[in-house]
Amino acid sequence: MAYNPENYKRIAAQYKDKNLRAKQAAEMRRAEIHEKLPQVMEIDRALSQTGLRIMREALNGKDGLDARIKKLEEGNVLLLEARREILLAAGYPEDYTSVHYECNDCMDVGFIDGKMCKCMRRALTLAGYESSGVLKLIEKQNFSTFDLKYYDGAERANMERILARTKHYAATFDGKHMRNLLFIGTTGLGKTHLSSAIAKEVVENGHDVIYESAQKIFSDFEAEKFGRTAQGEDRTSRYMTCDLLIIDDLGTEMQSQFTVSCLYNLVNTRLIAEKSMIISTNIRKEELLSKYTDRITSRLFGEFEICVFSGKDIRSQKLLRG
Question: Which of 37, 61, 170, 251 could pair with 198 in a Cys bridge, judged by C-beta atoms 3.0 to 4.6 Å apart?
Answer without folding.
Answer: 170
